[in-house]
Write a structure and sequence with these properties.
This protein has helices at residues 9-15, 47-54, 69-82, 93-104, 119-128, 141-145, 170-180, 192-195, 229-242, 248-258, 261-280, 299-305, 325-336, 366-371, 388-400, and strands at residues 86-90, 110-114, 135-139, 152-157, 183-187, 205-209, 223-227, 287-289, 313-317, 341-342, 352-354, 378-382. With 402 residues, the protein is an alpha/beta fold. Helix 3 (69-82) packs parallel to helix 10. The structure holds pyridoxal-5'-phosphate. Pyridoxal-5'-phosphate binds next to helix 4.
């Protein structure tokens, strides 16, 4: 019996990283569920192998900070889902993002980001990378269109920004980056390869918080960087040097999540569209931000860069009547909910909400938050995989309390 690599995205989700795909297993009858190589160090029989392990061959294992077969199985599976040559896993999304940025940037180089990016990525860049002499610009798409500032080495964006779901024109950004000799790095956490394959749209590297849709069950923290070997290896080098490696147990759980990614995403997306259309018709909702609504300012861009729909994330504004009004409305809304939980994360099978002004984007100045449209009454909704009617019924209870 031969084991061909599966063709479809769905079969790759289910089968990649299991059975004979597990690196280092070498068994004639491998387990269908991949084993967890719970080892910090490996028995290396020759100096030749020892040398190769330390000259960055990701499939010779010596020490789990540098590489582990369970982690490698996950890396190879995600590389396949993104249509990439290689991937490297890290202990969190931030571990992957920081490894990538540190591998690409040196003192004096410039990093340009689109304005609307995940708050902790902004904190990493503004508070920490800036101290290393890396020059920073956060620019609106119109400003980027006018050309990247001199010395730009990296252009960083998210296909759907957190939290207001602004879609980024990835092919255009790739063109602008290429013309300036810069790399385009894309955080595809909200979209996953089910909705968007940034490398096919011109990106150089993709990063993920696997804590979100890849894991999907709120029980792990993990991250990945995906792309050509020539760019993944330097990021892996930083990850190994700083020690932000992913543990085997977490890699295994992430892999388990991947096996249902395609099914979960289909329901997240279906619910996202139905719930957003319902919210947009509610008198107590001041504005609904969802790229699948024709009214969304980047609906046309989203149509071009996404496949299979517009995702499971929605943001909406509760009405605010003056200072403190948004916060008071949020608290009343939260008090009215019964099924939906408030949690500072997203992408779980269960629907959750969060308050970006108080969590993910807390570290930004009030002016920066205002520029991104993040008021105290902004609700970020992560549609789970319940029936859409369950989510709508609970949102209706919340809105009735506002
Ligand atoms: C878009 C995005 N990128 C990166 C991260 C960071 O991921 P992690 O919490 O796994 O470090 C998050 C976390 O919320 C996120 O939403």
């Amino acid at each position: 019996m031969s084991h061909e690599q599966p063709d479809s995205f769905d079969a790759t989700c289910v089968h990649a990283g299991a059975g004979p795909d597990v690196p280092g297993l070498g068994m004639q009858t491998p387990p269908l569920s991949p084993p967890i190589f719970q080892a910090s160090v490996f028995d290396i029989p020759t100096l030749d192998l020892m040398t190769r392990a330390f000259v960055d061959d990701p499939e010779i294992y010596a020490y789990s900070r540098a590489g582990n077969p369970t982690v490698r199985a996950l890396e190879l599976a995600v590389a396949r889902l993104e249509g990439a040559e290689d991937a490297m896993a890290a202990a969190s999304g931030m571990g992957a993002i920081s490894s990538v940025l540190l591998s690409l940037l040196s003192a004096g180089d410039r990093l340009v980001t689109t304005t609307n990016i995940y708050g902790n990525t902004r904190t990493l860049i503004d508070k920490h990378l800036s101290r290393l002499g890396i020059r920073i610009s956060h620019l609106q798409p119109e400003q980027i269109e006018a050309g990247l500032p001199e010395g730009t080495r990296v252009l960083y964006t998210e296909p759907l920004s957190n939290p207001t779901l602004v879609a980024a024109d990835l092919p255009r950004l790739a063109e602008i980056a290429r013309a300036a000799g810069a790399r385009l790095v894309v955080d595809s956490t909200f979209t996953t390869p089910y909705l968007c394959r940034p490398l096919e749209l011109g990106a150089d590297l993709v990063v993920h918080s696997a804590t979100k849709y890849f894991g999907g069950h709120g029980d792990l923290i993990a991250g990945l960087a995906v792309g050509p070997k020539a760019l993944v290896e330097p990021a892996r080098g930083v990850m190994r040097a700083v020690g932000s490696n992913l543990a085997p147990q977490e890699a295994w759980l992430t892999q388990r999540g991947l096996r249902t990614l395609h099914l979960r995403m289909a329901r997240h997306v279906e619910n996202g569209q139905v719930v957003a259309e319902w919210l947009a018709g509610q008198p107590k909702v001041a504005a609904t931000h969802y790229p699948g609504l024709a009214s969304h300012p980047t609906h046309a861009v989203a149509q071009r860069i996404l496949q299979h729909g517009y995702g499971g994330m929605i943001a909406f504004d509760l009405p605010s009547d003056g200072p403190g009004g948004g916060r008071a409305a949020f608290e009343r809304f939260l008090g009215g909910l019964s099924m939906i939980r408030m949690a500072p994360s997203l992408a779980d099978v269960g629907t959750t909400i969060s308050a970006p002004a108080f969590t993910s984007h807390r570290g930004l100045s009030p002016e920066d938050r205002a520029a991104q449209g993040i008021g105290e009454g902004l609700v970020r909704l992560s549609c789970g995989i319940e029936a859409a009617g369950d989510i709508i019924a609970d949102l209706a209870r919340g809105l009735a309390a506002v």
